[in-house]
Amino acid sequence: MPTVSSEELAAAAGVNSAKLRKDFSYLGSYGTRGVGYDVEYLVYQISRELGLTQDWPIVMVGIGNLGAALANYGGFASRGFRVAALIDADPAMVGKPVAGIPVQYIDDLEKIIEENGVSIGVIATPAGAAQQVCDRLVAAGVTSILNFAPTVLSVPDGVDVRKVDLSIELQILAFHEQRKAGEEGGVAEAAAAAAPVPAVPATAVPPAAPVRTGGGSEQAPGRKGPDGDMPAVMPA
Amino acid sequence: MPTVSSEELAAAAGVNSAKLRKDFSYLGSYGTRGVGYDVEYLVYQISRELGLTQDWPIVMVGIGNLGAALANYGGFASRGFRVAALIDADPAMVGKPVAGIPVQYIDDLEKIIEENGVSIGVIATPAGAAQQVCDRLVAAGVTSILNFAPTVLSVPDGVDVRKVDLSIELQILAFHEQRKAGEEGGVAEAAAAAAPVPAVPATAVPPAAPVRTGGGSEQAPGRKGPDGDMPAVMPA
DNA sequence: ATATGTGAAACCCTTCACAGCT
DNA sequence: AGCTGTGAAGGGTTTCACATAT
Hints:
The structure is a homodimer. By secondary structure, chain A is of the alpha/beta class. Chain A contains 8 helices and 11 strands. In chain A, the strands form 2 sheets. An 8-stranded mixed β-sheet of chain A has the order 6-7-5-4-8-9-10-11. A 3-stranded antiparallel β-sheet of chain A has the order 1-3-2. In chain A, α1 crosses α2. Chain B binds a DNA duplex through residues 5-7, 15-19, 21-22, 24-25, 29, 31-37, 201-203, 226.
């Protein structure tokens, strides 16, 4: 299949074809009227725009279950990410190969980052260690951090943080599940309405989990754009 | 701190106070004019609305590194989720305690789901097993699935699927990282513009990773709402 | 005096529809 | 004839600003 139309791509992706064309148009005019998009060329252009053609060395700090799972995750390598180093604070872990890469000791963190030109770090440590690790990463020159630890990280201006909270995904499912349950009844509905489930616009269910932090020295304030945060006011 | 104002909460959450008030208003009128919101009452109301006050038994299938990491993840229990069972297809895993819960064999999946009234399942299997596990979960009565396997799942109408692709988060960071790099130069900018980085509206960077699937028997088509999908057209 | 709750305005994103190119 | 690229319309969400309540 040498070429593809916006209609076909849109159907495959589950979006409107006009939106797809408009989105593509922000990258440039890579289509041919009357024909469609040259698949190979389009793939290359999108890859380049997304940074997939670059080599991104990353370091991962905290090689517990989650860290090991991430290191073994296939999706990374195929998208231009190269695990430059696995780092842990447990001397017993050091030297152990995880996903074929020997774990290094945290004392060497700065050296590793510098030598490999790493600008992206992944934190999969326990909550208590995360901020400290984060500070060291930033001081060593890392400017993007993916945080799996259940803590909000403070970073200086110019550093991007993405927080992945795995339980929020479950929470969103539970929220929908609750609504499904509420809609069943029909007759019993009114009775069960002691704690009524009011009509909530789509917004009430935020698009997704990770809270983009970036920017400010403290947390979030002022961050604009379609970030889809879960309300920050979240009872434990 | 017995009460809190929308202004304070908004600052803490990094959003506009009017938006916060409007959002809260969809849940009801839980504030007091001239005073603010009673913290305890507000927390309770939000918890109830989000389903945090309910008990949500879940099953997790596929207890590899990721499954074990999830089972150990602290955030679940504190939000009303109870791991009813860990299930794996590897007989060698069966009986082994992970996060204090013994792993059960996959043959008992249906029985486990029924006995525990489970409606939410988590799939952390390899890609190859995911669809099959998904089908069994659905057949057994599960109506919400959190999918960590790198596959798109097909589910019947009425079943919600959330897919978490951990590498997409990294990709978003890399995308920003690329832009940061592009903005440095200043003078060298024009020269390096052989492959210019065009102005892309905020939309170009989707809010977040997980692709809400739900609904249709096949994938996505027609799904509306602020889902923040990554473009589905994604080169390997 | 102070802070909520909410119409109305502003803004942004999505979709329509068609001119323009192959 | 067919499909892209895009101005304009439409729809939805965010912010403003103030009437209303304590």
